Predict the structure.
Amino acid sequence: MKWAGRILLGLEISIVLGVGLAIALAARTLTAINQQSAVAQYTALAPTATALIRLAELPAGNHGDHI
């Protein structure tokens, strides 16, 4: 059964190469995503503050300083 041993050896080698290729491609993709994230972080517009509540205007003549 030498042919069975050779087939299994070939299968094991192809699996190891496939896993190595998958790891290399994942690392490459992760590096690209990290670079895009860094660029986006430094080129994004600065956030602007918005008021959560709006001030009410008092009627004319009422300044709100008397109790």
Q: What stands out?
A: The first helix runs from residue 2 to 43.
